[in-house]
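Subject: Type IV pilus modification protein PilV

B.,
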Amino acid sequence: MTTVKNNNQKGFSLLEALIAMVLLSIGLLGAGLMQIGSIKANTNAENRTFGVGLAQSVMNDLRCQPLDFVLTPDDLLDDEDGDGAGGLNDGMALAGANPIPANADQSLGQITASDGRNYTIFWNVADNVPVNGAKTLRLFVYWNDQRFGVNKVIMTTVLGGFYL
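Prediction pasted inline below.
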């Protein structure tokens, strides 16, 4: 009896197919994790965009306030505690801690976005800085993010004054 050996076999063995499936599943798992990461990053970018837009809106509203140096109870551009340029960072959160808006010159409190996220808004004013007749205004907007912790937008502008 003669045995015929056929060395021209074509196709995959079971072991090769299993290895290919394991490699494919690892690749798909990595792609899925990248999608989850990008969704979280998109959410953070959306919150940051809202925070910047909110800061710009409040800053524009403050720029429309009268720039008088007569103290009135409802004046939003008063340096309430009279600490000048040294108090521009009053209420600012340090090293990931929560801000303390009560230490600031003025505060709008919290604004809740449509997604339920709370944004804390406050600002400080320095009279006659950098020149006489000017006011320096520093605005803070804070919010918390589950993944990235405390986030903030800080804007500073000078109102009034005469520059040469």
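The chain has a mean pLDDT of 89.

T.
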